[in-house]
Amino acid sequence: KIPRQVKDQLTPLIQKLMNICTSTKVLNRQAEWEEMKNIFELLKSVQDIEASYNPPQWDRNKNWNAFHEWCKDNEAIFSSVFIKEINDGEFGVFADKDIKEDEQFLLIPRKIMMSETSAQSSKLGPLISSDPILKNMPNVQVSMHLLMESLNPESFWMPYISILPSRYNTIHYFTFEELKDLRGSPVLEEVFQIFRSIVRQYCYFFLLFQKDTLADSLNIGPYFTYELYRWAVSSVMTRQNIIPTTEDGHMSISLIPLFDMCNHANGKLSTDFNLEKDSLVSYSFKAFSKGDQVFMFYGPRTNGEFFVHNGFVYTENENDAIEIKLGISKNDPLHSLKCSVCDKLNLSVNGPYFLYPVREILEELLSFVKINVMKSEELEKILNGDKEQIDALLSENSDLKNRAYSFLRDRLFLLLRSYKTTLEEDEEFLKQDTFESMHQHIAILLRLSEKKILKTSHDYCVSQLKEL
């Protein structure tokens, strides 16, 4: 337990962190970095004080047998697969026999899942009902539920909790120096937002456990540390799935034992929830031979999404894309006219617009860029013209195409320049394989995937300009 005098020592630091993380002041990028540095310094002071009170890390390898028995005892079906270590603490699901495409290989009953429903039915339920943060944030409910159960050696879910990683590669484990490896990346803004949000939640609950009688009765407060909270949050971020409840078709965030041990690969969605059996059923999206790792398709996510929410980058991602921030400036004298044209053509004024690994620029993005570079008389023609006239202007006007591709080429060039390293330098880093940390490795993989898309799109614009 954390002694009262230690909590008193922590409280002013927590309040400072809370004030910074709840500020709504708009900052430029340099000021954002300064603020993040301040957050990390305060957080380091908090972690140093809490270090003696963090729960010990467990050895997952010692707990697999108990986990398998627990799954079997609770009617999970997984006879055609087994779990095996891949390398350095990373595990995966492997075929124990040949598995055909679309063959069922997992059945996981609801009763062993940790979810919003089980959280609300637990001792945490009354606090969820009364606290506005918990009540309105299902992911936080499940995180706090996991945290509470991890503190109870007699928890029904302890066999599952004991095989979870004790650390993750999510952004919550990055140091300030490691975050600098993301400079130039379009995910950086979201990384800052999520990091601040989780620190703010930690501060909120730390203070709540000191003053709220109901919260204090849960016996979480005496053990509540930032290390424990970021572990619970990262567990939910990286492993959560959405399943239907038995009531009104409501979808519930859930942690699904065994199912969440499957790693990602390109494929198709192949999981269903059988309401009659009250179980999740997973089918193989392709055939696997005995001894193969059995992968699962997590869905059409970009590497930026995988990085932020799952803590990895998938280099063979067929669904990769990056968002390019484009909009019509309110200072543009033609702002109103351009917005009207966008409205007529069903184009969003503020995006989002995406670039993909394919060489071509998608027509929707190109049309928006054309509107952005149009002159007033061209905009008037669109507003007053019929479909044939509009199509002719957008597709046949070589001067307009030239301006649009030039605008996009220059924007992409600047985006590539905003990184602190070049594409070639990142490729060389990967060849050398001398990373200071796994976080740096993942950040370089992300930068590289983004730069390849930007360069491909930039080169396409250049080639189109040469043809005009």
Automatic annotation (TrEMBL):
GO biological process, one term: methylation
GO CC aspect terms: cytoplasm
InterPro entries: Rubisco_LSMT_subst-bd, Rubisco_LSMT_subst-bd_sf, SET_dom, SET_dom_sf, SETD3, SETD3_SET, SETD3_SETD6_MTase
Main localization of the protein described in the UniProt heading: cytoplasm
PANTHER family: ACTIN-HISTIDINE N-METHYLTRANSFERASE (PTHR13271:SF47), UNCHARACTERIZED PUTATIVE METHYLTRANSFERASE (PTHR13271)
Family: Belongs to the class V-like SAM-binding methyltransferase superfamily. SETD3 actin-histidine methyltransferase family.
Flavoprotein as UniProt keyword: no
Group of enzyme by EC: transferase
Location(s), subcellular: Cytoplasm
The SET domain, residue ranges: 73-299
Taxonomic lineage from the root: Eukaryota, Metazoa, Ecdysozoa, Arthropoda, Chelicerata
Stated name of the protein: protein-histidine N-methyltransferase
GO molecular function terms noted in the UniProt entry: actin binding; protein-L-histidine N-tele-methyltransferase activity; protein-lysine N-methyltransferase activity
Coiled-coil stretches: 376-403
Catalysis performed (reactions): L-histidyl-[protein] + S-adenosyl-L-methionine = N(tele)-methyl-L-histidyl-[protein] + S-adenosyl-L-homocysteine + H(+)
EC number(s) per entry: 2.1.1.85
Keywords of the record: Actin-binding, Coiled coil, Cytoplasm, Methyltransferase, S-adenosyl-L-methionine, Transferase
Pfam families the UniProt entry points to: Rubis-subs-bind, SET
